[in-house]
């Protein structure tokens, strides 16, 4: 062993010496008022060893602020969302589109509820008098398209929010309460194995074809996919350490679901909501095409159904409602996808 190594070992083996400090002689001058630089260093080197130690001030309130965080979940969500310029633009486009469905009847030259059938005016191309042209019965197409857009948006948004709410509530209970897993699984298999269009056909023939009845029926069957997805996610989170600790402390089921698990599901819920709205519009178009919706209430699906026979000769009858459906689908997808990413806590800094 080298001499340098022996010397180091001997220094480590020496007993620790406790300093007997006379606190009455400790320099209590505030550090911020002392000079700095070489002169200060030389002056400190000449001071007695017991004066080189000083107390650190302790403030209980400042000590508690060490663990304080100014983090806000929703503030962080909106900060992340507003960084996506394309999603903001698409959101503004959809809002303008929806608001315009209420403005269009005001600036229109014709009242959608009092359109007169005139075969002599049938199939007039778009012009200064008829901005979107006329249909096969000579009625103004502009007022019909915007009235149908308002109906389809209200129907799709209402059904999507309703089925998301039902699906999330059932999914949380289904995934957390193990005793109910068998019941909801069998219920899911029973409903899901039969095509939804069969249920809708039976309801339309037995109950009615009104928009309200079809909307409630869609909520009654569309919650299955959402509930199944939420149930699988709850399975992943319910046995995490913080949830086990909450149960040991006697926290109730409702508080665990709302406070501990639900925040991790927000991004998935927003994404499913954004994707379900275009899906509802597409399904409403299918129901209208099959004649399962009341044609007295105009909707985009009914206009597309009526235009299918005249598309080759008069394409504007299909292009106008199809363009609006496409615009709604694209805007909701981009906005929903961006907001879903913003809601994911893993994307927060």
Which features characterize this protein?
single chain; 349 residues; mainly alpha; MetI-like fold; 14 helices; 63% helix
What is the structural class?
mainly alpha
Beta-strand residue percentage: under 5%
Regarding quaternary structure, how should these chains be classified? Answer: single chain
In DSSP terms (H or I, runs of 4 or more residues), the helix count works out at 14
Uncertain segments are: 16-23
Number of strands: 0
CATH topology: MetI-like fold
Terminal residue distance: 52 Å
Q: What CATH first level would be assigned? A: Mainly Alpha
* Overall average residue pLDDT: 79
Q: Give the helix proportion (percent range).
A: 55-70%
- Give the overall shape: elongated
Please outline the major beta sheet. none
CATH superfamily: MetI-like
- Overall structural domain count: 1
Radius of gyration: 35 Å
CATH architecture: Orthogonal Bundle
Structural commentary:
The protein has about 350 residues and is mainly alpha-helical. The protein has one domain (about 85-345): MetI-like (MetI-like fold, Orthogonal Bundle), CATH 1.10.3720.10. The chain contains 14 helices and no strands. Helix 5 (about 85-105) crosses helix 6 (about 140-175) and helix 12 packs antiparallel against helix 14. The longest helix is centred in the middle third of the chain and has 36 residues, at about 140-175. It is elongated, with a radius of gyration of 35 Å. The protein starts with a helix and ends in a 6-residue tail after the last helix. The model is unreliable at about 15-25 (pLDDT under 50).
């Amino acid at each position: 062993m080298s001499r340098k190594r022996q010397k180091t070992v001997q220094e480590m083996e020496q007993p620790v010496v406790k300093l007997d400090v006379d606190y009455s002689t400790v320099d209590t001058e505030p550090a911020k008022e002392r000079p700095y630089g070489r002169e200060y260093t030389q002056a400190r080197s000449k001071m007695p060893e017991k004066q080189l130690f000083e107390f650190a001030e302790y403030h209980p309130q400042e000590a508690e602020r060490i663990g304080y965080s100014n983090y806000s979940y929703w503030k962080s969500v909106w900060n992340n969302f507003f960084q996506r310029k394309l999603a903001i633009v698409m959101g503004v486009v959809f809002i303008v589109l929806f608001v315009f469905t209420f403005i269009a009847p005001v600036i229109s030259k014709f009242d959608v509820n009092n359109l007169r059938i005139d075969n002599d005016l049938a199939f007039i191309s778009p012009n200064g008098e008829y901005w979107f042209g006329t249909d096969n019965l000579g009625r103004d197409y502009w007022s019909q398209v915007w009235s149908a857009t308002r109906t389809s948006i209200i129907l799709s948004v209402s059904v999507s929010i309703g089925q998301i709410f039902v699906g999330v509530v059932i999914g949380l209970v289904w995934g957390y309460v193990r005793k109910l897993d068998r019941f909801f699984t069998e219920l899911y298999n029973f409903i899901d194995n039969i095509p939804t269009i069969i249920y809708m056909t039976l309801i339309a023939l037995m109950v009615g074809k009104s928009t309200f009845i079809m909307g409630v029926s869609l909520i009654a069957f569309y919650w299955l996919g959402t509930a199944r997805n939420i149930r699988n996610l709850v399975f992943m989170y319910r046995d995490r350490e913080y949830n086990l600790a909450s149960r040991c402390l006697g926290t109730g089921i409702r508080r665990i679901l709302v406070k501990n698990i639900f925040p991790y599901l927000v991004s998935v819920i927003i994404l499913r909501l954004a994707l379900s709205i275009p899906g509802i519009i597409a399904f409403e178009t299918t129901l209208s095409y099959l004649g399962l919706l009341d044609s007295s209430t105009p909707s985009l699906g009914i206009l597309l159904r009526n235009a299918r026979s005249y598309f080759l000769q008069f394409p504007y009858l299909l292009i106008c409602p199809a363009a609006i459906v496409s615009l709604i689908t694209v805007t909701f997808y981009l906005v929903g996808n961006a907001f879903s990413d913003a809601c994911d806590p893993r994307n927060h800094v």
